[in-house]
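Action item from last meeting closed. Structure (117 res):
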């Protein structure tokens, strides 16, 4: 076999692998079970949607009224100023009047409260 034959064979091999269809995975990834999948932070309510988020203080922070009242003793100080637009599961969540889902945080995520009893 001369050099030209070797180059032709290498080119043919390259073309065969480059144009071959990609094999499908043996087992596709199963869809997550909604009952056990972790909550998507993008779909969770934010503090901005909660009645407990106050107006800006003189220092520029917006404080959580539930934390100030001492209702979140295990997770926040009384001067807690949460990130307003981050979705979260919070036992102190209180929906605003226009929210179609009027369940409180304790009703939505009872496991948060029950774990501390
Ligand atoms: S109670 Fe929870 S959800 Fe509501 S403002 Fe405070 S930290 Fe945010």
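Sequence:
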């Amino acid at each position: 076999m001369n050099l030209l034959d070797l180059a032709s064979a290498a080119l043919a091999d390259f073309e065969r692998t480059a144009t071959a269809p990609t094999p499908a995975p043996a087992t596709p990834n199963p869809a997550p079970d909604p009952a056990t999948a972790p909550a998507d932070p993008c779909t969770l309510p934010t503090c901005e949607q909660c009645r407990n988020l106050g107006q800006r203080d003189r220092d520029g922070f917006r404080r959580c009224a539930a934390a100030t009242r001492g209702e979140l003793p295990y997770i926040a100080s009384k001067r807690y100023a949460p990130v307003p637009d981050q979705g979260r599961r919070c036992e102190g969540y209180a929906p605003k009047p226009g929210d179609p889902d009027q369940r409180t945080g304790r009703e939505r995520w009872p496991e948060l409260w029950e774990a501390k009893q």
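Note appended to the action item: Helices lie at 3-19, 65-68, 105-108, 110-114.
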